[in-house]
# Entry
Amino acid sequence: MHALNASHHVAGRYAGDPGNVGWWDNMIGPGKPLDTNRFCVIASTTSAAASARPAAEHQSGNRPGVGADFPLVTVEDWVNAQARLADHLGIRRFAAVMGGSLGAMQALS
# Structure
């Protein structure tokens, strides 16, 4: 699970943008603690970023459905959504669940 300020870009680099490194690149990949030669790593994005945008952006008409109009969500809501994703993908058991900051709260939940 990612932290509030992180994105779904967890590891690796984007082609054509070698400076854009995933926020947990030191942890995920071949030979690293989350070895992608052994495990499938899933990083889902929460709706936290949308709910954190200033209401002024919404009021100016630049971004519909954010700010004060965005529904309140909880850590449990994100965890329930991730559980539904796992069900949809047919995943019955994870080898591990981990995260940083807000992601750690999700992992604990």
The chain has four helices and two strands. The CA atoms of residues 32 and 109 lie 25 Å apart. The two ends are 11 Å apart (CA to CA).
